[in-house]
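Researcher: Please translate sequence to structure tokens.
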Amino acid sequence: MTGYGLFQPSTLGMMGQSKALANISTNIANVSTGGYKATDTQFQTLISKTLDKQSDLGGIKPIETPRIDRQGLLNSTSRDLDLAIVGDGFFSVSPTLAVTGEILYTRDGSFQINVAGPTSTAVGADGNPITISNGYLTDKNGYYVLGIPKQTNGTFPTSASSPQPMRVDPFAFVNQTQQTTTTQLSLNLPAQKDFGDAAEVYNIGVVDSNGAARSIDLNFSRSAANNTWGIIPTGQNSTSLSLTGTAFSLATGAGNRLSLDAASNQISVQNSGSGLPVPGSFFGLSAGDSITIAGATTPANNGTFTISSVAADGSTLTLNSVNTSETVVTTSLTSPTIIATPMVFNANGKLSTPQSFTLTGTWSDGATSSFTIDMSEMIQLAGDFTPFSFSQNGLTSANLSRVQFDDRGQVIGTFDDGTVRTIYKIPLARFSNPNGLQAQNGTVFAETALSGVPTLEFTDVSGTAQFNPFSVELSNVDLAGEFTKMIMVQQAYNSSATVFRTVDEMTIIARDLKT
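Model: Translation complete:
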């Protein structure tokens, strides 16, 4: 290389170091920018050709090397809408609500709620319709964060395909209800309770097939048999409620006899020895139930009657009518009313059988209920009647009052009825070469041929990353390292400038020698 070609290496050196200094400046300026990824500068040697050989005197070319796959510093916050990623992956965001254009990717989880799209109609507190603006979860650029909604069966799909914008305004889920299908009840029934004592009552709240809240009382009564309890469900505005069991059936005989008193319209099972009514004979029946008598000595007393009331100890029924008085040694009494299977506890106070019940019922407006009650944690120990826990999976209509995240990327909604529900789940987009992504304004990245096609995964399924709620990921810039690079770049630039100046001086001298 001769003549003015001597300027090329030093000129390219200054240009290359200027580019490196620009990248360092950009990295330092974004040291606190959420989701920013640093860019390093490397250099490529340029080979110049001569007539007889090759030389490496051509100079250098700067190569920008993104460090997108490098984890950034996590910063704890107190915001409900802050979420950081630890590990591989990106949030997927869409510049449009319809998700019809290019999907972008970001690591900045400092989200907010923005109003967008058409308005919706909801029912206000006064019962009148109101027009509301829809609010969606967005990033700082106003791009819509994409997530997977919960399915109607209460679970999320195993595949994270086709995510969509997540609506999170107060009325977003007001029309979404879920009938109660499972419940769990744990309490202590007092072991010192005697047969004939007043029932212990525990109220449970469930959701019927119309999405309405229902209140059901479970009445626990000590049975005559040791360590045995009976249960009777009752509910306001119910037309029928029953637990797992069998239809009522009673056959008198073997020391017992049936007594019919026409004067009081009462029926009882009497002990043939003492002549006293047998307590608990009609446990499970209640006013309004029907009972059928068969085998009476007086045929007129055979038939179906309506129960007006039941004695507290279950020994006597008051019917709507009894034709004649009589005492019958053997007869049968049946009713379509389902009598719950008795609860039997062992000597240690643990429930032996049954471990669960199924409660079915209908309500006055035609709604129905059918759900299981897990009672496996029930105990019978000395002490007070003590409820420990009750849970159910039904959901009523309610307004969303708070939104936050958990460590699995699930969007958790708190509703004004006191329930906490999982409403969305955020998948992560993973690339085979994240450093091949193209950086765009707003610390978002676009897919390229070098990055490959993204794979959407749930972190609790793939295990490749996890989420940190109440945190944001800042830049991955190493400030000390950037200043060290700056010193090196400055020295390299000055050296190239010195070479340039020297070549310039040599050129001037050569020119003067010629003249």
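Researcher: Any highlights?
Model: The chain has three helices and 40 strands.
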